[in-house]
Specification:
With 295 residues, this protein is α+β, with helices and mostly antiparallel strands. 25% of the residues lie in helices and 41% in strands.
């Protein structure tokens, strides 16, 4: 299995800047400027999460993961039997199994477990990252809630099944993201929804009261079609020239992490291949200040 450092280097190579109506042309990735404090906080979060795995510390894991986290696993097993591929939600309460008899993640020497972290991008209250552990890679969206960084989304990848992404895989991932964004610009809700898994989690961090209470603003699979039908009726971004910058942070033959910088917002994505088709599974998004809009 390749190291996380190599995966991050290889997979963070596709920065595609394109007008929404133009054909995607891969370019060399621009270096991203990370907020040093956020990068450090997310790194500490994920290294602590890995250590809690090795120690079998269920309470520590549950502190690191938001109670409404969207943690997903692509699998072809159901009730112990072979099945079609599907996206399995990993319930928050499953973290309580850490340290129980049979826990294959627990180590007698937890300090020596693999805990390689790559922080791909940071924003105001969110970040895209990954952590490689002994048995799994987790693609992570981290968010800041009430002054603490926690895991909001994760796509869990057993290391033994992570194969090389082909050029075709990367092209399909880029096209999927492009179709998602162009669908908003073209006011085509079906096109937007068609890029997403039926179990889609699309959320942003919002604040209530005096601004200290954080909560998730959720957009469901059903709502994403409605949003696609209404969003650009208000903003009137030009479908042929509005911004659509795609960056792929990680890709293997079944999983990807990426970002799109669109006209007035950005999305962090977790994308999975299910039964041969790439689909958007998790999204964390933030709106941009109006002086940064481009459409």
């Amino acid at each position: 299995m390749r190291s996380l450092a190599r995966l991050a280097c290889v997979s963070c190579l596709a920065l595609t800047t394109l007008a929404a109506g133009a054909q995607a042309q891969p370019q060399t990735a621009d270096p991203r400027l990370l907020d040093a404090d956020i990068e450090s906080a997310v790194t500490d979060l994920l290294k602590g999460y890995a250590l809690d795995r090795y120690e079998g510390d269920a309470a520590g894991l549950k502190r690191a993961v938001h109670h409404d986290a969207a943690r997903r696993l692509v699998t072809d097993v159901y009730w112990g039997q072979p099945s079609d591929e599907w996206i399995r939600p990993l319930a928050y309460d499953l973290l309580d199994a850490a340290g129980a008899p049979g826990d294959q993640n627990k180590r007698t020497d937890p300090q020596n477990g693999t805990d390689e972290v790559a922080v791909f991008d940071t924003a105001t209250v969110s970040a895209s990252a990954m952590v490689e552990m002994d048995r799994t890679i987790e693609l992570v969206h981290a968010v800041e809630f009430e002054g603490e960084w926690v895991i909001a989304d994760a796509l869990v990848i057993p290391k033994e099944i992570a194969g090389e992404a082909s050029d075709e895989d990367r092209a399909q991932i880029e096209q999927l993201i492009r179709d998602y964004v162009v669908g908003f610009y073209e006011i085509d809700g079906d096109k937007v929804q068609g890029t997403c898994h039926s179990g889609l989690s699309k959320r942003s961090v919002e604040h209530a009261g005096n601004g200290t209470m954080g909560y998730f603003r959720q957009i469901t699979f059903e709502e994403i079609r409605i949003l696609g039908e209404t969003f650009n009726r208000h903003f009137n971004f030009n479908p042929t020239s509005a911004r659509c910058e795609v960056e792929i942070y990680y890709a293997d033959d079944k999983h990807a992490a990426a970002k799109v910088l669109a006209a007035s917002w950005f999305d962090y994505f977790h994308i999975a291949k299910v039964e041969g088709e790439w689909t958007i599974v998790n999204i964390i998004f933030e709106g941009l200040p109006e002086d940064q809009w481009q459409g």
